[in-house]
Structure formats: structure tokens, C-alpha cells
TrEMBL record:
This is Retinol dehydrogenase 14. Signal peptide: none annotated. Gene3D superfamilies: NAD(P)-binding Rossmann-like Domain. Keywords: Membrane, Oxidoreductase, Transmembrane, Transmembrane helix. The keyword Ion transport does not apply. InterPro entries: NAD(P)-bd_dom_sf, SDR_fam. It comes from Folsomia candida. The chain crosses the membrane at residues 12-31. One of its GO terms (molecular function) is oxidoreductase activity. The keyword Transmembrane applies.
């Protein structure tokens, strides 16, 4: 009787703990291998260079600021929440004791804030911008359609349109700095996501005013669409820069991977329909354990795109895990859509 129970316990332990643990650890090791290494050319000296990072007070943005600070750059933390950014600066200073860290208020929910940020920056630090990192990203709960100050659907407005205007207004600065040293063009780095593959922009209704929000259960459609817009922007920006001979600016988009930071946590709390039990308690934890990256790991592809010397001739491409991301895996990116989106964005932000 007793042996029967102990063998039952052993079996239970084997099936429900030991085997899953071995599978998880093996997966983790394999995935780590597949993820690729940090590019050694990242270790370039950027002292004296000026970098802007949006959404710098949290997650990948914060880690990105720290990476630049460690390498001696002057970093502008473009943040909505200045108090939070002050804590971030204290924290990073205590570790790096290096880098000029400057907080400037930028609220991407408001185009007038974008304009005053740019005017303020150009006045204070003229002809100095080398790298612009469009990092800030908003994710609203499934089914939520909020508006920005200018009446744009919030996710599209913040993630795409505000960054479109920001980049457009700062481009002359990037060009000036690039021209000072043509062998090192200035860069625009766009933190996008692999979920752009699930997006579908409807050009007749970009703000989802008429189209029902047939949201997918796990990743809000509006977020996927905004990330698709980020990638199309990257494509068209590169094309336009190439057409200007010697523009001295290049641009890159990237997927940071599955990041275990704050984005999404709040949205999970607000989710209208909770995900099925198995998804929440089995699938998500397994995916997170096997493939999740912390903020520092996630920032590596941003640093790769910002600094790697191998990328100069690859403007407009997309990267993941510090590696080129194959075209065949990015089926949603059409040059036609990129041109259409650009023209519509120009009108929406009042640049045409
Ligand atoms: C966005 O929507 C949420 C939920 O519907 C609401 O609580 C919140 O106040 C809205 N935010 C803005 C800025 O409109
Ligand atoms: C950002 O702008 C929006 C829209 O004007 C406003 O509702 C929000 O309070 C602003 N937030 C901050 C922190 O400035
Ligand atoms: C790029 O830099 C070169 C060399 O400094 C300069 O001649 C050229 O005008 C620059 N291009 C633009 C578009 O500013």
C-alpha cells in the first residue's frame, strides 16, 4: 500500500515537475544560443555625441540610456513624467558616474509638446544630435480606443504620428551632425516589434472611427497596427534619405524581443476578457521563461542599430537579436503602403 503511494508520488513528481523542468531549461539554453550575441562593435566610444531617447524613464528606454551613459554620450531623456525620469537619472549616475544625462519634457500625446520639445532642444544643443532613438511605446488594453490631444487614436498617435513629427523636425539637425563626419552618418533608431506582422493598416480609417475594433484576444490590434506603421515609416524614411545624395543620415527598425518590463502589465490588469487559464498560467509563463529578455538584454538590439559599424549600407532594414531580420519573415512591408502612410502622416501632423 505504502509503496503504491510512494510510486504514485514519484510518478507525479516526474511528470509534473522533473520533465517540465528539464524541458524548460533545455529550451532556455537553446533559445539563448539562437538569440545571437551582442555585437562587439557596440563597444564604440560615443563620448561627446548627443543622443535623444524617447520613453527613457522605463524598461528598455532606461536600459538604453544606461548603455549610452556607460559609453560616455550626452543623453537627452525625453520623458512625459519628469519626476520619474529624475529617479532614473540618479540611479544611472550612481552606477555609471559618467555621461551627461539631461531630462526634457516630451508628451507624445500632444503634437504641440513635440514641437516645443524640438524647438527647446535645437535652441539649447544646436548642431549636435547624432542619434535619435524612437523608443517610447504605448499599449492600451484590448478593445480600448482612446484619443490624443489632437484627436488621433492614441496608440497610432503616440507610437507613430508623434514620432513621425519628432523625426521630421529633428532631421535637419541629424543631417548637420552627419555632414561633420560623412564616414559616420547620424542615425534614427526605431523600436518596433515583430507583432507588426499581425497589423493591417486601413488607410481609409486610420483612427478606427468607423471600423469595428475586432480585437484579437492577446495583443491589441491597435498596437500591432502602430508597430506596422513604425516599420513602414522606417522603409520610406530610408528611401527618401537615399534619394538625397549624401544625406548623411541612416535609419533602422528593430524588434526588441519578448520583454519582461512594464509595458503590457497594466493593460493585462484592465483586460476586458481575461485570457483562458491555460494561456495565462501555462503558455505565457513558458514563453516568458524560455524567450523573455530583461530590459538590458532587450536594449542590445537598439545599441546594435545605433552603433554597429556594419550597418552603414543597410539603412531601412530591420533587426532582431542583434541580427538582420530576413525579409521573408516580414511580409506586411510594402513600399507602396510606406509611401501612402508617409503622405497621410505629413498631412495629419501638419507638415504638408
Ligand atoms: C482611456 O481609456 C480608459 C479606459 O476606457 C479610461 O479610463 C481613460 O481615462 C482614458 N484615458 C484618456 C486619456 O482618455
Ligand atoms: C499629455 O498630454 C495629454 C493630452 O494633452 C494630457 O491629457 C496629459 O495630461 C499630458 N500628460 C503629461 C504628463 O503632461
Ligand atoms: C553630407 O555631408 C557632405 C560632407 O560633409 C556634404 O558635402 C553634404 O552636403 C552633406 N549632405 C547633406 C544633404 O547635407
Amino acid at each position: 500500500m505504502l509503496s503504491c503511494i510512494t510510486s504514485f508520488l514519484w510518478c507525479a513528481l516526474l511528470y509534473f515537475a522533473i520533465i517540465p523542468a528539464i524541458i524548460l531549461i533545455a529550451t532556455r539554453i537553446i533559445v539563448k544560443k539562437l538569440r545571437g550575441q551582442v555585437d562587439p562593435t557596440n563597444e564604440v566610444d560615443v563620448s561627446g555625441k548627443t543622443v535623444i531617447v524617447t520613453g527613457a524613464s522605463d524598461g528598455i528606454g532606461k536600459a538604453t540610456v544606461e548603455e549610452f551613459a556607460t559609453r560616455g554620450a550626452r543623453v537627452i531623456l525625453a520623458c512625459r513624467n519628469v519626476q520619474k525620469a529624475e529617479k532614473v537619472v540618479d540611479d544611472i549616475r550612481s552606477r555609471t558616474r559618467n555621461g551627461e544625462l539631461i531630462i526634457m519634457h516630451l508628451n507624445l500625446s500632444s503634437l504641440s509638446s513635440v514641437r516645443s520639445f524640438c524647438a527647446d532642444f535645437i535652441q539649447k544643443y544646436p548642431s549636435s544630435l547624432s542619434i535619435l532613438v524612437n523608443n517610447a511605446g504605448l499599449i492600451n488594453p484590448v478593445g480600448v480606443r482612446n484619443l490624443t490631444e489632437d484627436g488621433f487614436e492614441e496608440t497610432f498617435g503616440v507610437n507613430h504620428l508623434a514620432h513621425f513629427l519628432l523625426t521630421d523636425l529633428l532631421l535637419p539637425e541629424l543631417k548637420k551632425t552627419g555632414a561633420q563626419n560623412p564616414s559616420e552618418p547620424s542615425r534614427v533608431v526605431i523600436v518596433s516589434s515583430g507583432v507588426h506582422n499581425w497589423g493591417a493598416l486601413q488607410f481609409h480609417d486610420l483612427m478606427y472611427e468607423k471600423t469595428p475594433l475586432d480585437d484579437w484576444k492577446f495583443t491589441p490590434k491597435l498596437y500591432c497596427n502602430s508597430k506596422l506603421a513604425n516599420n513602414l515609416f522606417n522603409l520610406e524614411l530610408a528611401k527618401r534619405l537615399r534619394s538625397e545624395k549624401n544625406a548623411n543620415v541612416t535609419c533602422y527598425a528593430l524588434c526588441p524581443g519578448i520583454v519582461t518590463t512594464n509595458i503590457g502589465k497594466e493593460s493585462a490588469k484592465l483586460r476586458a476578457n481575461p485570457e483562458p487559464y491555460l494561456v495565462k498560467h501555462v503558455l505565457f509563463p513558458v514563453v516568458k521563461f524560455a524567450m523573455g529578455k530583461n530590459a538590458k538584454e532587450s536594449a542590445q538590439t537598439t545599441m546594435f542599430c545605433a552603433l554597429s559599424k556594419h550597418l552603414s549600407h543597410h539603412s531601412g532594414e530591420m533587426y532582431r537579436n542583434c541580427e538582420f531580420w530576413d525579409y521573408s519573415k516580414r511580409t506586411k512591408l510594402s513600399e507602396e503602403d510606406a509611401a501612402t502612410l508617409w503622405e497621410m502622416s505629413e498631412k495629419l501632423v501638419g507638415r504638408k
